[in-house]
Write a sequence for this structure.
């Protein structure tokens, strides 16, 4: 076929590559990240959370970025003073994260860099971690922190899935199960997988493992049981008389 098309076989083999989608898919780009005002607000509130931690944020706090950067730098200096010389596992793991904050020039700059790369440039977490000299887990933790603050502010994040299971589907599964329908039959009717049906039944407290009906009659089952018993008896006799002497 390649010869008929006028293409050399080695050219065809060299062109058969697997193409991978580049960048984070739009499904996982939160809606607030496309609005500059909301994007900036989330960064500011995440920085305030880093500065004050569990303490209440003062009502008269200014949101001037240079002022917040200064407060975040003071907080960072306090964290570094605690971590200096500590040998326990927690602070050893935090060392790379602290170095990443220092390398970006501060906490606000770091989360801004992560958010911009993830949501504007659509980089994957692994690529972001490599560019900022930090772990993938730290990048993911920062993204989750930003999403948490966006939800607190009432900003839209991810678009709701269109295939979210409604309560009516779970009620239908429970009704069919109570009518002695099997998991396979329920899954075929509603167009979902068997594990999904079992999970729904477990959540509703209805799932009990049922014995499948045997295709053998009672007489055939008794004969099969007798054959297994005779086979086990012959094996024991063999062990007694031959193998064990």
């Amino acid at each position: 076929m390649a010869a008929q098309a006028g293409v050399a076989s080695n050219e065809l083999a060299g062109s058969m590559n697997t193409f991978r989608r580049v960048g984070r898919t739009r499904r996982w780009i939160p809606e607030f990240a496309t609005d500059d005002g909301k994007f900036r607000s989330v960064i500011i509130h995440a920085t305030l959370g880093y500065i004050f931690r569990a303490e209440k944020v003062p009502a008269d706090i200014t949101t001037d970025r240079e002022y917040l950067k200064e407060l975040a730098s003071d907080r960072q200096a306090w964290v570094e003073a605690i971590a200096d010389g500590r040998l326990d596992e927690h602070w050893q793991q935090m060392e790379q994260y602290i170095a990443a904050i220092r390398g970006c020039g501060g906490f606000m700059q770091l989360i801004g860099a992560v958010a911009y790369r993830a949501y504007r440039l659509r980089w994957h977490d692994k690529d972001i971690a490599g560019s900022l000299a930090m772990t993938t887990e730290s990048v993911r933790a920062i993204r989750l922190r930003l999403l948490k603050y966006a939800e607190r502010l009432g900003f839209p994040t991810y678009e709701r899935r269109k295939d979210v299971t409604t309560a009516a589907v779970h009620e239908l599964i429970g009704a069919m199960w109570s009518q002695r329908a099997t998991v396979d039959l329920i899954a075929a009717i509603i167009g979902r997988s068997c594990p999904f049906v079992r999970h729904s039944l477990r959540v509703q407290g209805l799932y009990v493992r049922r014995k499948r009906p045997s295709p053998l009659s009672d007489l055939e089952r008794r004969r099969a049981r007798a054959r297994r018993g005779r086979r086990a008896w012959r094996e024991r006799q063999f062990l007694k008389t031959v193998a064990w002497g």
Observations:
- The radius of gyration is 31 Å.
- The CA atoms of residues 100 and 134 lie 6 Å apart.
- DSSP finds eleven helices and no strands in the chain.
- The chain has a mean pLDDT of 81.
